[in-house]
Amino acid sequence: DQQVKQNSPSLSVQEGRISILNCDYTNSMFDYFLWYKKYPAEGPTFLISISSIKDKNEDGRFTVFLNKSAKHLSLHIVPSQPGDSAVYFCAASRKRGSQGNLIFGKGTKLSVKP
Amino acid sequence: NAGVMQNPRHLVRRRGQEARLRCSPMKGHSHVYWYRQLPEEGLKFMVYLQKENIIDESGMPKERFSAEFPKEGPSILRIQQVVRGDSAAYFCASSPMTGARMATNEKLFFGSGTQLSVL
Fold this sequence. Notes:
Number of helices of chain A: 0
Order of helices and strands of chain B: EEEEEEEEEEE
Oligomer: heterodimer
Radius of gyration of chain B: 14 Å
Order of helices and strands of chain A: EEEEEEEEEEE
Distance between the termini of chain B: 36 Å
Structural class of chain A: mainly beta
Helix content of chain B: under 10%
Number of helices of chain B: 0
Structural class of chain B: mainly beta
C-alpha cells in the first residue's frame, strides 16, 4: 500500500520551459512534505520542503505547491536547465519531527533537453 | 568538508554469506538513518540510531538484519545469510538534530549508498 505516489515515472522538458512534477499521498496524518533530487550513483539531496500549514513555498527556480484537500503536491521548476536532469523523489512525514522516518515515492526521472 | 561516507560502494555476496555496510556520518552529526532502495522503488526507512542506541527500527526486517552505531567508529548495517531479495541500494543518512527539537531533521544528508548484489 503506497502512501506516497508519483504516477509519472519520467518527464521530458525543453530547456527554459517549466517542469511540473506531481505527487499524491493517501495518509491525512502527513503534515510535512519534501522533495529530494538524486543523480545517478549519488545519494538523494534535499531540495525544498513545505509544511501542511502552507500551500506554497518558493526557493529560487523551485516552488512547491500543496493542495491538502486533494492530498496533492507539485514541484515546479522554472526555467528548467539541463543540470536539473535527475530523479526527483517526493517524501512525507507523519509529523514534524518523525525522527527521519520519511515515506518516499518511487521517483520521477526528469530529462531537460537543451 | 566530508559528507556522509559509505563503504563499500559496491558489495557482491553469494547467497548465505554476510554483508557488512559501513556509514560514517557528517562531522558533528550524531544521528544516523538507514534506508533501502529496491529496484524501481522509492527509498524505504529501515532504522534510526543515535550513538549506542537504536531509536526506531520499525523498518528493519525481523530476521537477519541488524544495525549498530557504536560510541567509536562508523555505523554498521549487517545482513546475515543474504538472499537474492536483499540486492538493493542501501543509503545511510545523518542529521544534526539534537534533543527533541527536530526543526530540520527531515533535511537528511545522504551518502552515496552501497549497492549490494547477491549472486
